[in-house]
Amino acid sequence: MEGRDFRKIEIVIEALRRHKEFQELVEGVNPFLIYRTDTGAVLARGIYGFEQAKAKANELRKRYGLKWELVKFKAERNSSGAYKRQSGGRVDYSRNYNPSKHGRFRVRINPDGSTADID
Description:
32% strand
């Protein structure tokens, strides 16, 4: 294969990745955040689905008498969903020394009782 072929493959892969992100936004996988652009104040949070977020942003804009350019919404990408469980819990250390890691075996016990090995 030549360099042009690899470039074409990269373009296709990038297009598929962007399409997947768009589908997640439309299908409501990620919650949306509605905010004011002038002050940065959060007006609403945790709205699932692109169309629902658009409707809620329009409703809030009308309720507060704001112009279109002052109300925006975006997908929340920080500490929501499955990654929220990472904070909290306790870490237990083993009596056994792990020479390959130059330390002891560790395990985190989450508040819900699940465990995770820490390497």
